[in-house]
């Protein structure tokens, strides 16, 4: 009987070591991924890591105003997109930045494809029941056919649809 129980003990010890090693590897990978995200943001000198209540973003804040199309193209050339600010945490973060910038800022939201259907640049739709009061100052932001692009308005401290041909500062988001 003794040899059988020794074999069982050895197998249990080996199994335990494999499980512990797997957990350590998982923790190391999680830590490595977090560090890689930080490094990815810091390796792009124009981008900075922005921390808000719900997480972090790797952002580029323009100092040269551009039209919406040019701002979008510039973000894409940087391997990024016009920034997506879905949810109360990101919205509060964006508004806190507005006091620093003191001007309207293009973001990654528009209704270019279909009038009245606002689409975030991650492909999701901002539904009408979400418009007011978190994002827009009124419940019908789409009141002009020539206003298809969305900025964070310095005047309202909310989103505003405006003519895409206007030049404004903008914020890009590197998706990590």
Concise summary:
Helices cover 41% and strands 22% of the residues.
How would you describe this structure to a colleague?
Residues 54-173 form the C-type lectin domain. Keywords: Signal. The protein is an alpha+beta fold. Helices cover 41% and strands 22% of the residues. It has helices spanning 2-42, 68-77, 88-101, 128-135, and strands spanning 48-52, 55-61, 81-82, 105-110, 118-120, 125-126, 149-152, 159-162, 169-174. A hairpin with a 4-residue loop joins strand 5 (118-120) and strand 6. The chain is globular and about 80 Å long. The N and C termini lie far apart (56 Å).
Q: Which term fits the overall shape? A: globular
The major β-sheet equals: 9 strands, mixed
- How many helix segments? 4
Structural class designation? alpha+beta
Question: What share of residues is helical?
Answer: 40-55%
Number-wise, the strands total 9
Q: Report the sheet-strand fraction.
A: 15-25%
Overall pLDDT metric: 78
Domain C-type lectin: 54-173
Keywords: Signal
Protein name: CD209 antigen-like isoform X1
Signal peptide: 1-22
């Amino acid at each position: 009987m003794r040899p059988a129980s020794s074999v069982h003990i050895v197998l249990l010890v080996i199994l335990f070591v494999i499980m512990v090693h797997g957990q350590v590897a998982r923790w190391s990978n999680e830590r490595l991924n977090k560090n890689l995200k930080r490094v990815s943001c810091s390796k792009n000198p124009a981008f900075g890591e922005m921390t808000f209540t719900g997480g972090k973003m790797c952002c580029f804040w323009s100092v040269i105003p551009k039209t919406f199309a040019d701002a979008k193209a510039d973000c894409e050339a940087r391997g990024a997109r016009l920034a997506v600010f879905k949810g109360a945490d990101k919205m509060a973060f964006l508004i806190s930045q507005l006091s620093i910038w003191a001007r309207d800022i293009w973001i990654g939201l528009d209704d270019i494809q279909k009038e009245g259907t606002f689409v975030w640049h991650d492909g999701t739709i901002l539904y009408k029941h979400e418009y007011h009061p978190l994002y827009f100052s009124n419940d019908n932001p789409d009141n002009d056919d020539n206003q298809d692009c969305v900025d964070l308005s310095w005047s309202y401290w909310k989103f505003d649809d405006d003519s895409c041909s206007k030049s404004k500062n903008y914020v890009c988001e590197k998706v990590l």
